[in-house]
């Protein structure tokens, strides 16, 4: 690693030719993140709760393990960059009716689930799950266990998103007693100027104290979330944050590109456009991030995820068992995902289903004794084939067309003829290679793997890509 932060930024700038600024900027268009295929823009309201129960029955026939996602929408304070479904309040009593509705949703869902299927993965997201009191957390775990039967398998992956500003040592000990073994801490940036600009004051000591205690307690994996492209950030300032984060030595890092979409997310209107870094500065931040993290021994999983070589995420990529889902990359590929709570999305065998995103609509449905499904889609055979191709490309950074053809009994060269033509320019530009029916993503191509995946997307031409975030 360069000896100083300035060296790191200077070295990245001097490597501009290797990165090909003009090339990256040419490919820096908008496109899906492919946490699902088809993407949520293909979900439709003709898909109802009855379709969900049918999908759950087919899911039982497949007997895959279960993954549960629980959405907790509450936050005590709104961060200006946030694009999540959330409710700002400091009153934890307001969570009680929501938790009661969650239990109704669990009961309705569990009626259609073979609960002998193990729950290998659990994720609480938000919002801020640690908004809940310790007693409320215990009650929610008890309800999940009663409805679905939680696991004590040491290989389970039970994670929760934590806001370091409202969690302490007692919180971590309690979470461990509830069965959580992985934590994700929101950091975003350690520079006080940036924190003020995004309304998120979070001294480094808060994060450091929690990480020390998590490691002492033996949590299996710890993830930190960072964001580049925020107001007041520069390549130098973000390198300072990365340097401090590397010293904290988390097992995983998610380094997201901030998407400024104030027309869609009202809190972002509080961010001053003139304080945002320009495209060249953001590209330098991305270079610095990859240079510093790889020099520190992290594996670039792809897109915005990094992991220690011995972390389960890196091992899953090596084993070809990595999966994309609505939380990003997941090490548990062979699971059906059940989403619980407002706006939550389920992935069940051959279907996606999303709950109502408006809390009142979610509550009304459950009060009427029905699932809160608002929209979804059942995949065609073509959708499933293309999902397989896109997922393997984005997870493995390679796609074995011959193996894919054998799995689906198709001629991949003919089936994906248009996609391979679309990828020809990317091959010429050094983003990928195609040899012996294997597409391999190059190191630079990892930054643009969303663009490579778009070649296989049959829905995208009808949607356009204007409603998606920038690729880099």
TrEMBL record:
Its main location: cytoplasm. GO terms for molecular function: coproporphyrinogen dehydrogenase activity. Residues 60-293 form the Radical SAM core domain. Its EC number is 1.3.98.3. Binds 1 [4Fe-4S] cluster. The cluster is coordinated with 3 cysteines and an exchangeable S-adenosyl-L-methionine. It is an enzyme of class 1 (oxidoreductase). It catalyses: coproporphyrinogen III + 2 S-adenosyl-L-methionine = protoporphyrinogen IX + 2 5'-deoxyadenosine + 2 L-methionine + 2 CO2. Its cofactor is [4Fe-4S] cluster. It is found in: Cytoplasm. The keyword Metal-binding applies. Pfam families: HemN_C, Radical_SAM. Pathway: Porphyrin-containing compound metabolism; protoporphyrin-IX biosynthesis; protoporphyrinogen-IX from coproporphyrinogen-III (AdoMet route): step 1/1. Keywords: 4Fe-4S, Cytoplasm, Iron, Iron-sulfur, Metal-binding, Oxidoreductase, Porphyrin biosynthesis, S-adenosyl-L-methionine. Gene3D superfamilies: 1.10.10.920, 3.30.750.200. Monomer. Belongs to the anaerobic coproporphyrinogen-III oxidase family. This is Coproporphyrinogen-III oxidase. It comes from Vreelandella gomseomensis. The gene is hemN.
């Amino acid at each position: 690693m360069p000896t100083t932060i300035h060296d790191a930024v200077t070295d990245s700038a001097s490597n501009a030719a290797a990165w090909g600024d003009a090339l990256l900027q040419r490919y820096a268009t908008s496109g899906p993140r492919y946490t699902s295929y088809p993407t949520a823009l293909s979900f439709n309201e003709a898909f109802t709760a009855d379709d969900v129960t049918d999908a759950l029955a087919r899911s039982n026939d497949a007997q895959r393990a279960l993954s549960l996602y629980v959405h907790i929408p509450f936050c005590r304070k709104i961060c200006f960059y946030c694009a999540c479904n959330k409710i700002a309040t400091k009153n934890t009593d307001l969570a009680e009716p929501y938790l009661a509705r969650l239990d109704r949703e669990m009961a309705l869902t569990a009626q259609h689930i073979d609960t002998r299927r193990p729950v290998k993965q659990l994720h609480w997201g938000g919002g801020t799950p640690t908004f809940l009191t310790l007693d409320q957390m215990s009650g929610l775990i008890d309800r999940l266990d009663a409805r679905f039967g939680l696991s004590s398998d040491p290989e389970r992956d039970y994670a929760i998103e934590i806001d370091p500003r409202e969690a302490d040592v007692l919180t971590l000990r309690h979470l461990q007693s509830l069965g959580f073994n992985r934590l994700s801490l929101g950091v975003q940036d350690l520079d006080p100027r940036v924190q003020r600009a995004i309304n998120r004051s979070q001294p480094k000591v808060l994060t450091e104290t929690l990480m020390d205690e998590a490691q002492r307690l033996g949590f299996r994996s710890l993830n930190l979330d960072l964001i580049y492209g925020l107001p007041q950030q520069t390549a130098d300032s973000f390198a300072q944050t990365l340097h401090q984060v590397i010293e904290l030595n988390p097992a995983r890092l998610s380094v997201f590109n901030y998407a400024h979409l104030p027309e869609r997310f009202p809190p972002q209107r509080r961010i001053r456009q003139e304080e945002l870094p320009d495209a060249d500065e953001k590209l330098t931040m991305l270079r610095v991030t990859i240079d510093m993290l790889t020099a520190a021994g992290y594996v670039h999983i792809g897109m915005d995820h990094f992991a220690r070589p011995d972390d389960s995420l890196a091992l899953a990529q090596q084993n070809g068992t990595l999966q994309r889902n609505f939380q990003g990359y997941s090490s548990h590929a062979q699971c059906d995902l059940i989403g619980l709570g407002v706006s939550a999305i389920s992935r069940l065998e051959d279907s996606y289903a999303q709950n109502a995103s408006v809390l009142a609509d979610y509550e009304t449905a459950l009060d009427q004794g029905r699932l809160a499904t608002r929209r979804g889609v059942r995949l065609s055979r073509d959708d499933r084939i293309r999902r397989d191709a896109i997922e393997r490309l984005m997870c493995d950074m390679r796609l074995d067309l011959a193996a894919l053809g054998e799995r689906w009994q198709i001629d991949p060269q003919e089936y994906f003829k248009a996609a391979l033509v679309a990828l020809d320019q990317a091959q010429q530009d050094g983003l990928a290679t195609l040899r012996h029916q294997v597409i391999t993503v190059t190191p630079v191509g990892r930054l643009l793997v969303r663009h490579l995946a778009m070649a296989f997307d049959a829905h995208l031409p009808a949607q356009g890509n204007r409603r998606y975030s920038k690729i880099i």
